[in-house]
């Protein structure tokens, strides 16, 4: 216990230096959670009480995560899946099947955790009463795993925004820094795609503008998966890179910037667009081509003249398909713009667009003279930038969701 108190005291001293109330989170944690963080063994009485607290938390999550409502959705989707003509529309059927599996998986996870915690509590109470048997170490190890599972469900409970469950449209733009920034933009594109791959999400490259020497000037991705926007919204903003330039013969240290824009994919029904407000241009697609992709005018650029919003798509084989995809992105961007104008506070929380240059970054990636990735908003940092750039973003996403919950 002295070790726990000393730890809390030292964290409190750091608060002022960090400018971030880390101790506020820690003081809210139960003593058992702090003991887990510090790897301090618990006695059996503390372990029993910790399991009781964990069981209460698991029971409360059933209501917070609205499992009753989700069970009704599962029942409805199950009926749809069983229809003989279900697979006639392949794209729609795939989406429904994925939604059904995701919902059922979330409920199954909670059910398994709740059962495990109940069994552990029963075992711990018996062990506490029987002094001839000591299962404390085994029960504590299982408790740590169960607590981690409940923590993941609690984070999911933070994703209750209007569009958090939607697919995401992610656009990456090179900022200040020339070729360096374009190479950095491509590194960020790979990072996002790797993260999506680890999450089991489907990625589609909708548009890409290659740099003259290396990297990309811009790229737009569609990422399809449950809670894709909810998780990826943490990446919205300017990202800063410090490294020894691979393009500099003198091996000087360079600073580069690139911005990531994340918007939810929104259905057309939420917004009406007058066709007279649109200017639609067609042009030859770039890229590797194949099967007439870059030999016909299949690429489409759409400009919404009242707002100046421009979108383009060139990855599909036909002009019609590219137009449909571009319109979907346009609807999403205009809807988000409309919501930001109507709700200034919400816009402040989500983060307005900032120019990709010095002083506007949300996260810094330092590869030289030391290795560190630090989020400016949450103060969370990692000493393994290689893992982060390979898509290990969950710790940063979790820190962002916790930070965001304190901003309202």
Provide a descriptive summary of the structure in words.
The chain has 408 residues and is of the alpha+beta class. It folds into three domains: 41-157, Release factor (Methane Monooxygenase Hydroxylase, Chain G, domain 1), CATH 1.20.58; 168-269 and 347-405, Alpha-Beta Plaits (2-Layer Sandwich); 271-342, Double Stranded RNA Binding Domain (2-Layer Sandwich). It contains 13 helices and eleven strands. It has helices at 2-18, 22-28, 31-37, 44-64, 67-81, 90-129, 136-157, 179-199, 228-232, 319-342, 344-350, 385-389, 394-405; strands spanning 168-174, 202-210, 216-224, 237-244, 253-264, 278-283, 299-304, 309-313, 361-366, 372-375, 381-382. An eight-stranded mixed β-sheet has the order 2-3-1-5-4-9-10-11. A three-stranded antiparallel β-sheet has the order 6-7-8, with helices on one face. Strand 9 (361-366) and strand 10 (372-375) form a beta hairpin. Helix 1 (2-18) runs antiparallel to helix 2 (22-28) and helix 5 crosses helix 6 (90-129). It is globular, with a radius of gyration of 25 Å. The chain starts with a helix and ends with a helix. The relative contact order is 0.09.
């Amino acid at each position: 216990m002295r070790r726990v108190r000393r730890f809390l005291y030292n964290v409190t001293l750091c608060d002022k230096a960090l400018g971030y109330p880390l101790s506020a989170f820690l003081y809210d944690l139960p003593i058992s959670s702090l003991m887990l963080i510090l790897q301090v063994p618990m006695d059996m009485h503390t372990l029993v009480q910790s399991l009781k607290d964990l069981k209460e938390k698991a029971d409360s999550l059933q209501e917070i995560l609205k499992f009753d409502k989700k069970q009704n959705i599962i029942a409805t989707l199950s009926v749809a899946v069983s229809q003989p003509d279900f697979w006639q529309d392949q794209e729609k059927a795939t989406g429904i099947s994925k939604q059904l599996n995701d919902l059922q998986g979330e409920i199954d996870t909670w059910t398994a955790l709740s059962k495990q915690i109940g069994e552990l509590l029963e075992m711990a109470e018996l062990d506490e009463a029987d002094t001839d048997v000591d299962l404390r170490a085994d029960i504590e190890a299982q408790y740590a795993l169960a607590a981690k599972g409940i923590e993941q469900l609690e984070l999911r409970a933070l994703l209750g925004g209007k569009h958090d469950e939607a697919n995401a449209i992610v656009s990456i733009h090179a900022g200040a820094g020339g070729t360096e920034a374009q190479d950095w933009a491509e590194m960020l594109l790979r990072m996002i795609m790797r993260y999506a791959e680890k999450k089991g999400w489907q990625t589609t490259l909708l548009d890409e503008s290659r740099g003259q020497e290396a990297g990309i000037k811009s790229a737009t991705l569609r990422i399809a998966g449950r809670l894709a926007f909810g998780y990826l919204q943490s990446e919205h903003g300017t990202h800063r890179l410090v490294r020894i330039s691979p393009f500099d013969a003198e091996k000087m240290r360079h600073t580069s910037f690139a911005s990531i824009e994340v918007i939810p994919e929104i259905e057309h029904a939420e917004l009406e667009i007058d066709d007279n407000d649109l200017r639609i241009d067609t042009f030859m697609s770039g890229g590797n081509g194949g099967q007439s992709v870059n030999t016909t005018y299949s690429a489409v650029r759409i400009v919404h003249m009242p707002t100046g919003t421009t979108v383009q798509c060139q990855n599909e084989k036909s002009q019609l398909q590219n137009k449909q995809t571009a319109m979907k992105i346009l609807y999403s961007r205009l809807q988000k713009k409309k919501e930001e104008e109507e709700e200034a506070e919400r816009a402040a929380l989500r983060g307005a667009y900032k120019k990709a240059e010095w002083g506007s970054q949300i996260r810094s990636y330092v590869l030289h003279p030391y290795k560190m990735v630090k989020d400016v908003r949450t103060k969370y940092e990692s000493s393994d930038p290689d893992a982060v750039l390979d898509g290990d973003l969950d710790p940063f996403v979790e820190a962002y969701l916790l930070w965001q919950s304190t901003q309202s």
